[in-house]
Specification:
With 386 residues, the protein is mainly alpha-helical. Helix content is 65%, strand content 2%. It has one domain. It has 15 helices and two strands.
């Protein structure tokens, strides 16, 4: 919105043309989201307390969590408002990829809001049934995957929907563009030539999987939001690179026209996340809830798919992967052995709590691992890694 306004002003006052620079708009989006979060945060927490929207803590978890019972939850709505408003203010409204990311982010946010609402109103820590939640996540993921399968390969949206229709009429068979292939970090000569169906499956897994992975990680104060900020910021740089033909060619990435605009979304996520961390750090004044965790995970997954860095996302978000694997391993082993467990409790951050680690120690260790993994991911995509 503001971009269009400043472009109109620049016709008479050339100084306003500086807002055409993507880097400046990214900085402004981050600052806007940060300001919204800091300004509205105390009011949101007060209103959540008045409405008695507090977290119901499970009695089967660590005993140290019982003191958190009643802490305001659904604070992720503040993150979504900050991201949504700042992105709409500073984005190019004609960019198709930003709208795709907002669709997933807000869609998953609505699913999470319904889940949190049921937890609060019915005082049921389980919220929505797994089948219902997964069904809505899958619907949003499939719609996005079908759109991106053709949008990523096309420079504009002009022929995307006609291409989708042609795909349907042709019996779901079309030659896959080279941009849909999966590049392996550290070994850029290796690329898996995914067809359209392969891309659809991969995109679905990345978006839905990342959404649930972040949600599983959101079990301790600040544990999910800061890694999301770090991974989102790193993905923003990747988006800027693949959106520039010169940088993309130099680093042997696929050039994705329009992907650079996602820097605005990633910057807004970083600003909103840092503002929320102020209130979510130990001891937390508010929890983000599923409304924030599902939305942030879906946002990261969608951005990674668009800039074709799915494996890089798995590396940088290593703690999300480990948290998810710990739940899968625990559940599978429990069923196969009729009640035995590998971990004292899953996700794995609860295992460390049961081993005597403090929340602060777990937070510092996990964030430190995320820093290392982000650096490792950048090493893997550098020209020397070829």
């Amino acid at each position: 919105m503001l971009l269009a306004f400043f472009q109109w002003l620049s016709q008479d006052i050339r100084a306003f043309s500086v807002f055409n620079y993507l880097s400046l708009r990214a900085v402004m989006a981050a600052l806007t989201a940060l300001l919204i979060g800091f300004s509205a945060g105390p009011w949101v927490i007060r209103e959540l307390r008045k409405l008695k929207i507090g977290q119901a803590v499970r009695t089967c978890g660590p005993k140290t969590h019982l003191v958190k019972d009643g802490t305001p939850t659904m604070g992720g709505a503040l993150i979504l408002i900050s991201i949504g408003l700042s992105t709409l203010l500073w984005m190019d409204l004609s960019n198709r990829f930003v709208w795709a990311v907002l669709f997933v982010t807000l869609g998953y946010g609505i699913v999470g809001w319904v889940d949190d609402y049921r937890k609060v109103v019915h005082h049921n820590p389980n919220g929505m049934s797994a089948r219902e939640k997964f069904g809505w996540q899958s619907l949003i993921g499939v719609i996005t995957a079908v759109y991106l399968a053709f949008a990523v390969a096309m420079p504009t949206d002009t022929h995307v929907w006609s291409l989708v229709l042609h795909w349907f009429e042709n019996g779901f068979v079309l030659p896959a563009p080279a941009k849909l292939q999966l590049t392996v970090p550290f070994f850029k000569q290796i690329a898996f030539p995914f067809g359209i169906w392969g891309f659809l499956i991969l995109t679905y897994i990345v978006i839905v999987g990342t959404s649930n992975a972040v949600n599983l990680t959101d079990g301790l104060d600040g544990l999910a939001i800061l890694p999301c900020v770090m991974v989102g910021s790193a993905l923003g740089i990747f988006c800027y690179v693949v959106g520039r033909p010169d940088y993309a060619n130099y680093l042997y990435f696929s050039y994705i026209p329009g992907a650079g605009e996602l820097v605005v979304v990633c910057a807004a996520l970083a600003g909103a996340g840092l503002a929320f961390l102020w209130f979510n750090a130990y001891p937390a004044q508010v929890f983000m809830g599923d409304v924030g965790a599902l939305a942030l995970g879906g946002c990261l997954g969608t951005v990674a798919v668009i800039c074709r860095q799915e494996i890089v996302l798995a590396i940088m978000g290593g703690i999300f992967v480990v948290e998810t694997l710990s739940v899968m391993i625990q559940t599978t082993y429990f069923r196969l052995t009729h009640g035995k467990r590998i971990f004292k409790m899953a996700p794995i951050h609860h295992h460390f709590e049961m081993c005597g680690w403090s929340e602060e120690k777990i937070f510092v260790v996990f964030v430190g691992i995320t820093v290392v993994m982000c650096v490792l991911a950048y090493v893997g995509v550098s020209p020397r890694a070829m």
